[in-house]
Amino acid sequence: MKRETKLAHYGRMAMPGPANPPIVRASTILHDTVGSYRATKAARETDDAVLSYGRRGTTTAHQLAAAVCDLEGGDACFLFPTGVAAVAGGLTPYLSAGDHLLVVDTIFPATRSYCETVLRRQGVEVDYFPWDTTDLAGWARPNTRMVMVESPASQTFEVMDLPALCRDAHDRGLIVAADNTYGSGWLYRPLELGCDLSIVAGTKYIGGHADAMMGAVVARGAVVDALRRHTATTGQTLGPDDAYACLRGLRTLGLRLERHDANGLALAIWFKGRPEVTEVLHPGLPGHPGAEIWARDATGCNGLFSVLFRDGFDAEGFIDRLALFSVGSSWGGFESLAMPASGDAGRLFPAEGRGGPMIRFHAGLEHVDDLIDDLDASFGRA
């Protein structure tokens, strides 16, 4: 079955029945015999769809988890209330005091913050490596346990050669986790490229309407059991209302990303022709670092890209004059966004020669001509 068809049928119930699975709110799950209660508790240790207690999710969350698992090509999926919670949930089960974690230097800032403020306090050693690394010989230690990557890079969109990196990491016995929020399981499937864990902030494109919070960790192979135990022990789950919103968002994921991709690339190309612009960072543009690898490993781009302007350009004033682009955290909804960015801030391996103010844009679902008119008007009023 084609994946576009699957999006319309995930969670489908027996007919006659609703097209979308209903919201199931529950804490206590009732049984009529002790035997039934005990059998359910035993079954849930290997079957994540068993309805046993609200702390392990209700039917609504289970259906979303099954859908995201299939979307990513994994063996199991566990849901979290936010994307950052999913990052924590995807790292913590595999790291103990004295272990060493390798993290790509271009990682999402909130992930870096978790590593620096939580994992280090728990005795985990953390080092950062350049985004173009494929051989960990200079970075791995005897106590290295795990590698955390993100491709394309947060804010600057460099593309990693994940298959090559994963082969090297697995030769060293390391677990590889990828932040796949950009690809959201639709454009990019890190598990197929060799990763053991794919972490997604479903708050973005899976929900798609800027009104739900969700994180997911999809696992494959031997890492599943530790993640299952950790998730159950720490009580991580997703509420049924957000699960319902994300299931509904999945129905149009493919169609929405087609428009985000087309709008984002059109805007990126338009910006490249502006005299105020020095560089456009978009993984779909020819000449972008890793563009050929992205074309090999992915099926398209989303609506995110960054623009570097000449020194002295008033980036904040430019944003403030925009009418269709709003300023706001997150991205992946239907709306267009623009916000100041500092792509190399806090990094150990900043890009050489990159300077000037930066704006990160998210191309929403509006007509691209109107978005270009809005940008052009802001330049004109400068």
SSE arrangement:
Elements: H1 3-9, H2 34-43, H3 59-72, E1 76-80, H4 83-91, E2 100-104, H5 109-119, E3 125-129, E4 144-150, H6 162-171, E5 175-179, E6 197-201, E7 215-219, H7 224-234, H8 240-250, H9 253-272, E8 277-281, H10 291-297, E9 304-309, H11 315-320, E10 337-341, E11 358-362, H12 368-380
Parallel strand pairs: 2-3, 2-4, 4-5, 5-6
Antiparallel strand pairs: 1-7, 6-7, 8-9, 9-11, 10-11
Helix pairs in contact: 3-8
- Pairing-aware structural class of the strands and helices? alpha/beta
| Portion of residues within helices | 25-40%
Please indicate the count of domains.
2
State the end-to-end CA separation: 52 Å
**CA gyration radius, whole angstroms:** 21 Å
Q: Bin the strand percentage.
A: 15-25%
Strand tally, please? 11
Q: How many individual helices?
A: 12
Strand order of the largest sheet: 1-7-6-5-4-2-3
Description:
It is a single chain. With 382 residues, this protein is α/β, with parallel strands linked by helices. The protein folds into two domains: 3-250, Type I PLP-dependent aspartate aminotransferase-like (Major domain) (Aspartate Aminotransferase, domain 2), CATH 3.40.640; 253-380, Alpha-Beta Complex (Aspartate Aminotransferase, domain 1), CATH 3.90.1150. It contains twelve helices and eleven strands. It has a seven-stranded mixed β-sheet, with helices on both faces. A four-stranded antiparallel β-sheet has the order 8-9-11-10. Strand 2 (100-104), helix 5 and strand 3 (125-129) form a beta-alpha-beta unit. Helix 3 runs parallel beside helix 8. The radius of gyration is 21 Å and the shape is globular. 47% of the residues are buried.
